[in-house]
Amino acid sequence: MEQILYDQVVAPVVKFMASHITKHLGYVFCSTKYVTGMKDKLKDLVDTSTEVIEHKNRNETNEKEIPARVEAWLGDVEKVKDQVQSIPNDDIGCLHMKNRYRVGRNASKATMRIQELISKYSEFTWTDAPLPTGRATSSTTSTPLSSSPGGDDFKSRDVPFNDALKLLQQNDNKSQVIALCGMGGVGKTTMMEQLKKVAEDKKMFDFFVKVTLGRNPNMLSIQNEIAVCIGGEGLREETVTARADSLRRKFEKKLEEDKAKILVILDDVWGKVEIKDIGLTSPLPKGVKLLLTSRDSNICTQIAADAFTLLQVVRVNVLSDAEAQNFLSKYTGVCIEHDQDRFQIGCDIVKKCGNLPLAIKLIGTTLKSQENYVWRDTLNRLKNHDLDDNVQEIIRISYEYVKKDEDKEIFLHCGLFPEDSDIQIEDLVRHGWGLKLFKNVSTLREARDRTNTCVRNLVNANLLMDSERLGCVKMHDLVLAFVLERVSKGDLNWIVNHGDVSTWSRDEMNKSCKRISLTCMGMSEFPRDFKYPDLSFIQLMDGDQSLKFPEDFYASMENLKVIAFYKMQYPPLPTSLQFSINLKSLCLHRCELTSDWSYIGDWNLRKLKLLDLTECADLHIDDGVFINLVKLEELYMRGDYKKGICFTDANLEELKMLSCQLCALEVNFYDMWKQ
Fold first, then answer.
1. Are 665 and 476 within 8 A, CB to CB?
2. 203-207, 501-505, 603-607: least confidently modelled range
3. Given this model, what pLDDT does residue 596 score?
4. What is the fold of 479-674?
5. How far apart are CA 464 and CA 99, in angstroms?
6. What is the pLDDT of residues 452-465, one digit of tens each?
7. Cα(279)–Cα(158) distance, rounded to whole angstroms?
8. What angle do CA 653, 656, 661 make, to 5 degrees?
9. How sure is the predictor about 18, in pLDDT bands with cuts at 50, 70 and 90?
10. What is the CB neighbour count within 10 angstroms for residue 641?
11. In angstroms, rounded to a whole number, what is the distance separating the alpha carbons of residues 165 and 657?
12. I need a surface site. Which of 176, 193, 363, 637 has the fewest CB within 10 A?
């Protein structure tokens, strides 16, 4: 039946539309083939994971080293096995186009993820070396150990980790508010993530709500994140008070009707938080626990008092001297037996790092394979500063030792995203391409390869971290602080504000500004005199429908090269965009577009090479939109299954004419079949 459908339906369409569409139609008509291929690949992955588990168990028994990423890799294998289980195995009727599309597409994505995990396995290096002093395997205790940001297990972390876990397991009201407290870079967030994973594995709670506050929290955005965690949908209310009431009702419903147990995690708390603002009542409702991470236990005490309960503080201390020295040796390869002079300099550097894992990891990566004079100079640079300044100096040294300018550019650009963000590498591709950050790159495909190379170099330098989300990276808040301090000065002079935008002052509106990134939730109107002739990049997030923009918004932005809007209701697309004649990349993600946006086809965007309208609500494409985009290389119009993409016959003709120049085209084509 599949072959008949393919011959009678797919082939004529492919001939009409060009080869880029074949893949998406194939999801529909060859869904069974995709599922079969997925199962075959999964068998290979399961066989590989069995070998890894056996090798891991042997090394644990014999107290030998296990590669740092093995545990995470095995966890990812379990996740992808669950993903495969969720994809229907039985045959789907030929007329259920939407279901067949979903199955085919999901099976294809799962197959790619499986192949990625098989490839990652080949990167493991099993040295089978004896464990150095101070390290312990997970088999030495009944619960997983907390680890440093480097992924190594430290014996000194066993006690605080297990203390915190016991508090999470207790049902009395004396352990409702728990705080992991310690210095910046000591590993509080890492320990919190591991506690959360154990709690999930043991099914200790029904719902997990995790948000990051940071130095300048945007309470409206935080409230929206909480709502998504417990209700699946965002909030429509426009004020903190109204949103708090809505959240309270959501929590009460879960606790009363569903008898749920909920863990609320507030990460990186810098200031007092009113628990009523996050939907919780005083005293804290039964069934709710609050887990905090903070540098300041006094602030956590105030939050606990607001919840009418005592605070249980778990201290996360710096590494012991032996652990810190061994940790530096791991990254530099320098030990006392082979190089006593450099090892002693390293011990002095470790002291200047305050035995903080993050600082040791960064400086260790930088010093690897460096000459003695580099080690001595590094120690000298750290001698006359306090610990906080030393950490920033260490990040500066690591940044200076990045060899390639392109890597540095991508690193700084990551500072445009909110704290604790999962930064999509694909976003970096599109931004970097549009801003011409790469040398000798002429196509988006080449830019994609170059960006992935840059990101991998930065992860290897420990300036970026791998994210749990596929295709994403993260930046530690101390590293982000360094970037923001750097880009706010001198020739760069970028404007970045993802906190309380009501504090965004006119003083920041320097006309020489080149890049702007704002979270707009809570902002009602953009300044009328928003004039930035040197601006090349603008990124706006989370703006609601009340946010107003001047009609001449882009009038003085003739140098604008990249526009990136995320979750903006009615993003600014006035006719003044025609003045941005150098625009190369226009990305609108999950935005609600007004019906008149289609006059983009009339604008003079002759240099536009990428147009992304992913998950834009009620997307209607007027005739003539595409035909004037003469340099377009990539077009994305993926939507969710509830929001149609309405095409006309003229649109299809335009895409046919563009097919010879497009190297990437992704559209939910089954949506056009509804018409």
1. no
2. 501-505
3. 56
4. 3.80.10
5. 38
6. 999 999 999 999 99
7. 33
8. 140
9. very low
10. 11
11. 61
12. 193
Fold category of 321-400 in CATH: Helicase, Ruva Protein; domain 3 (1.10.8)
SS (H, E, C) 612-665: ECCCCECEECCCCCCCCCCCCCEEEECCCCCCCEECCHHHHHHHHHHCCCCCEE
Identify whether the C-beta of residue 494 lies closer than 8 Å to the C-beta of residue 514.
yes
DSSP bridge pairs for 667 = 637
Element (H, E) at 666: strand 664-667
Round to whole Å and give the CA distance between 524 and 501. 10
Phi, psi of 267 (to 5 degrees): -95, 145
pLDDT score at 572:
79
Question: What band does 617 get if pLDDT is binned at 50, 70 and 90?
Answer: confident
Q: Give CA–CA dist 283/72, Å, rounded.
A: 38
Residue 129 above 80 pLDDT? no
pLDDT in tens, 23-69: 554 555 566 777 888 888 888 888 888 888 888 877 776 667 787 67
- pLDDT for 196 equals 93
pLDDT in tens, 342-386: 999 999 999 999 999 999 999 999 999 899 999 999 999 998 778
Give residue for tokens 């093995």: 70
Sign of the alpha-carbon torsion through 569, 574, 580, 585? positive
Q: What are phi and psi of 317, to 5 degrees?
A: -90, 170
Residues 6 or more apart in contact with residue 119 via CB below 8 angstroms: none
Largest CA distance in the chain: 77
**Exposure on the CB side of residue 488, measured as CA atoms within 13 A:** 14
Length of the chain counted residue by residue: 675
Residue 586 pairs with which residues in a beta bridge? 563, 611
405-478 CATH fold: Arc Repressor Mutant, subunit A (1.10.10)
Superfamily of domain 138-315: P-loop containing nucleotide triphosphate hydrolases (3.40.50.300)
Within 271-394, strands assigned E span 288-294, 311-315
All structural domains of the chain with their residue ranges: 2-121, 138-315, 321-400, 405-478, 479-674
Q: How confident is the model at residue 645 (pLDDT cuts 50, 70, 90)?
A: low
Helix (H) or strand (E) holding 146: none
Closest to 609 (Cα-Cα) out of 662, 565, 556: 662
Q: Which residues sit opposite 291 in a β-bridge?
A: 178, 265
pLDDT in tens, 262-281: 999 999 999 999 999 999 99
pTM of the model: 0.75
Nearest to 307 by CA among 175, 206, 204, 188: 175
CA pair distance 152, 98, nearest whole angstrom: 46
DSSP assignment letter at 144: P
564: exposed, middle or buried (C-beta count within 10 Å: 0-12, 13-18, 19+)?
A: buried
- CA atoms of 115 and 359, how far apart (whole Å): 34
SS3 503: helix
- What SS3 state is found at 17? helix
